[in-house]
Amino acid sequence: MTDPTAPGASAVTGPTAPGASAVTDPHHPMAEVLAGFAPYPDEFAARYRADGHWRGETFGSMLRERAAAHPDRIAIVDPTGGSGEDPTRRWTYAELDLRADRMAAGLRARGIRRGDRVVVQLPNTAEFFELVFGLFRVGALPVFALPAHRYTEISYFCAFTGAVGYVVPAVEGGFDHRELASRVKAETPSLRHVLVVGGDAGEHTPLAEVPVDPADAAGAPGEEPQPGDVAFLQLSGGSTGVPKLIPRTHDDYIYSLRGSVELCGQDENSVYLVVLPAAHNFPLSSPGSLGTLYAGGRVVLCPQPSPETAFPLIEREGVTITGLVPPLALLWLDSAERIREAGGSAGLESLEVLLVGGAKFSEEAARRVRPVLGCTLQQVFGMAEGLVNYTRLDDPEEVIVTTQGRPISPDDEVRVVDDEDRDLPDGTTGHLLTRGPYTIRGYWNAPEHNAASFTADGFYRTGDLVRRTGTGHLVVEGRAKDQINRGGEKVAAEEIENHLLAHPAVHDAAVVSMPDPYLGERTCAYVVLREEHRAQPPKSVELKRFVRQRGLADFKVPDRVEFVDAFPATGIGKVSKKDLRAAIAASLTSS
Ligand code: AMP
Ligand code: DBH
Hints:
The chain has 20 helices and 27 strands. By secondary structure, the chain is α/β, with parallel strands linked by helices. The protein is globular, with a radius of gyration of 24 Å. Residues 236-237, 281, 357-360, 379-384, 404, 462, 464, 476, 479, 485, 490 line the site of adenosine monophosphate. 2,3-dihydroxy-benzoic acid binds next to helix 11 and strand 16.
């Protein structure tokens, strides 16, 4: 299956990589990272620079410049973790800049270097930014895990990336991350540092003990991060059993921030509320916390996404913009409506823009945003691999509520094609392929996936089925990839099937989506039992418990398990997931 012309294949040798010489020098600090990185071909990189998209900025220099321009402006507001009367922490740009320097120096003092990988799994706290900017300054790569990830995901990320560090909260949502960290550390030879935020660090090191005076730990020569360097590894929602890692460079990601800031109308007066998990690509960059810092605005961290927590915070901090997945947007709409019907005020007057994305937002719900919340809806259809589409703030209301937007950049190349990769006319639904100044050319260290996920000329196969309107807006019509979109949380069917197959009673498993009024989709696992277990089948809850006990994020545990004697087959004898989806949907509407 490996196509020698696929971008991932050439990346292994990297003859066309800018800085390809680094790959041939095994001692170069970025050698390990570059060995798995599919670079932008030279002619594209040159064009993206000439067009002014890639401006040679790094995250480290961006924060330095903002701090120099407006040191006393507030950058980060964290309503928790303060001392004395006021639990709220407020860090100015100068303070965040200084903290990033001290963190970088402390990380270096502990032997963390440019090109090293550090798995970051933190809730929405100020320390997330102190740490991530510290890593950016060192040139070490954060690997952005989500708080919901458990043993299966975390041990994989640590081992696959050869991570030297893993950063966790002590306890979060009732889960003891220190214990998980101990287990993963014992099993992962590369993992030297477990750093803990908040609470007792136990056998690990408190993150608060890491920062030191920058004069005490200057970087060695050659360690300065470069704009073309991979800045971090983002995660793919994935459509196969193996989660994939997404290498994003300073240059390409900062371009997507600049474009997002402009299209979302952000400036230094913007106050962005981080409601979704901070490490996810959407609240990180669309325009998210990093876009807001790029614009010189203020980032407010929401510890918890419920209206009860978020609404008072919006009122108190004068939040102007935030981003939600569709199920949360529905919850907020319902709550605001109830408050108003009871004669109260939700206190959302400052809110100007609500971004909704991650999964399809129904037209019906979209129409309620302006009248109920009093702000402009901006639909966003994005992916951690790159391409992000936004409806424009001045698009007609009809376009805002019926489309998922159009690309950030005039240089985003978007193709809508049939099964044979032939271009389709506007208005016809097909596969979305894309290439551009902030879309990756390959997953990290995954030549075989890359051969399937990218065309020979470098277009990313998104796995989404879309239709393009006459105005160039995209409407998401479904997906070709084998993935369930559980209200923005992506579940790869194959990953869950593999876990089910490990159960002694399970002969075969097929995981499909079922419609759900709240999440859009939930997961249904169809299971064929082994002959000898059919007389006394295990209970559904037993299989769910089995999957959970294998240490999987909760959102991946099947919502429903259905036992069948055999799966319906397609014409050539493959499991017909289409028929399974239809069967479960029909049984839900009839019950
Ligand atoms: P991920 O791979 O986790 O970054 O998820 C990206 C995927 O989420 C896209 O390829 C789409 O399938 C889905 N997605 C994101 N935003 C939207 C949206 N506004 N409408 C429909 N699907 C979306
Ligand atoms: O779902 C996503 O991954 C997503 C949604 C909206 C995303 O990565 C983004 C915006 O940047």
